[in-house]
Write a structure and sequence with these properties.
alpha/beta; 7 strands; globular; binds 5-O-phosphono-beta-D-ribofuranosylamine; Phosphoribosylglycinamide formyltransferase
């Protein structure tokens, strides 16, 4: 069972999944492996980590396409070359077309840095602080056509502490993202 992970930046969630797959020996326990890491940005830091791990990497620059549909069609072609059982969005900062989402229905997952359904969209940590939330967190969910909506697979909660900035809260949430994303992907693979 091949896992294809899409990133746009640092790729710490991707790296956490790769490391967990190694530590838990997903090849043996789940018959699964991370087959490819795909980025829409050539300078995404996570690409170097993936290459060091011997994982195939692909770059597809969205700016080379004149519509979302054209980009998503090319993206699907790249992904499908790796015959994915599960497609993982890990800080992939592109909105996907309904056609793309439908193609991978039930096996396309995303992580969002809030306790959904609260705070869909961007700037989740600042918005949680501004709202006076005492708790924040992260959510892994199946991707459906609507942004940041879709069946919830895993969530984790962290406290919002006095004096938190968006950055300090984001760092606390990110450590939990790494835990729940690997767990959710393993759960999904088990059901495949
Ligand atoms: C994470 O906070 C994720 O929830 C959000 O973007 C960030 C990506 O971080 N969508 P990384 O690239 O996995 O380090």
């Amino acid at each position: 069972k091949n896992i294809v992970i899409l990133i746009s930046g640092g790729g710490s969630n991707m790296a956490a999944i790769v490391r967990t797959a190694q530590q838990q020996d997903w090849a043996r326990t789940l018959g699964a492996r991370v087959a490819a890491v795909v980025s829409n940005k050539a300078d995404a830091k996570g690409l170097a980590f993936a290459r060091e791990q011997g994982i195939a990497t692909e770059v597809l620059d969205h700016r080379a396409f004149d519509s979302r549909e054209a980009f998503d069609a090319a993206l699907a072609e790249v992904i499908d070359r790796h015959d994915p059982a599960v497609v993982v969005l890990a800080g992939f900062m592109r909105i996907l077309t309904p056609g793309f989402v439908a193609r991978y229905a039930g096996r396309l997952v995303n992580i969002h840095p809030s306790l959904l359904p609260a705070f869909t969209g961007l700037h989740t940590h600042q918005r949680a602080i501004d709202a006076g939330c005492k708790f924040a967190g992260c959510t892994v969910h199946l991707v459906t056509a609507e942004l940041d909506v879709g069946p919830i697979l895993e969530q984790a909660v962290v406290p919002v502490l006095a004096g938190d900035t968006a950055d300090t809260l984001a760092a606390r949430v990110l450590t939990q993202e790494h835990v729940i994303y690997s767990r959710a992907v393993a759960g999904l693979l088990q059901k495949q």
